[in-house]
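SEQUENCE WITH STRUCTURE:
===
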Amino acid sequence: MEDRQKKLRTDCWDKALDSFGYSYIYSKKIESLNFQLRWTKVLGILIPVLLGGILTSYYSYEIILELAIYITTPIALIQLLLSAYLTIIGADEKVNTYSTKSAEYSLLNSEFEYLGKYPPENVSLFQNKMDILLERERGISKGNFDIEDKELRMGMRAGLRNYRRGCAGCGETPISMTPTDCEICGNY
């Protein structure tokens, strides 16, 4: 009976680590997309305002106008291409999806942690609560997409670092997110 409860607690903490890692992965994806979206918006406003200001201020100086157009055209093309790319891949929708996933995994992480810290005395009740959380995890993980192996390793490293655990591959307990050569918690 005692061994079963200990195993359930260990499983809770393992699942908490996994959930933390997935939440971390999705939050990093959000950061990356938000950075790109912000820059397309900044460039989309900055270039026309800059050109408009130059045109209204120096409309009689043809050389300045040509130089301004020559300088801003490549930047405007980059902004146009980046905006088109982000629209095609559905960046705004992905940010919403990733935000939902990150929040779901964060909540699941908290619930696994709580169950691991404060397990019910009754092992059957403990098992029932664990089964409910595992079913929720299966439901959440069905929608996992766009996650590469290197991101899984990054998530593993984040979880190991958060819970101060040693990696099963290299034996190291990560103290930073700097990647190593480990095939379990590095190479990302």
Observations:
- The first helix runs from residue 2 to 57.
- The CA atoms of residues 82 and 127 lie 50 Å apart.
- The chain has five helices and no strands.
- The chain has a mean pLDDT of 94.
